[in-house]
Amino acid sequence: MSTKELSEDVAGIVTEQPAADPALFDPAAFSGLKALADKVTPLVQGGRFDNIVDLLAVISDNIEFLDEAMLEKLAGAGEDLLSMGWTTGNAMRMASAQTEKLEKLPGLFQLLRSMNDPDVRRSLHFFIGFMRTIGGQLKPD
Question: What is the C-alpha separation between 79 and 72, in angstroms, rounded?
Fold first, then answer.
């Protein structure tokens, strides 16, 4: 269908049902619909709009199958991920600021003395446990 035919169809609908929806006569709504149609036209002509509709159908189907327990799990996972990102970002900014303040890099013995700090030992223990878990998952079966 050509753009002219489509315009005639729309004009026919508007003239046939003037009381159907007053929003059709709002110039802002009409210009918004025209802008949307201009953007969607290449997708429809290229057959890519069908992919968008299929994607929306998949999302809709998955939303139907979500129960409250699954939503709570997803929300918890999202909160955990956000918290982890925030904590990691803060730690990196603080460590970067401390490193920039150094006039001279610490020597080997200074680094070993930092092992007396309980926070350093706690973070090393965490890192070693993390690496142990990753290594265990990478073992061939």
Answer: 10
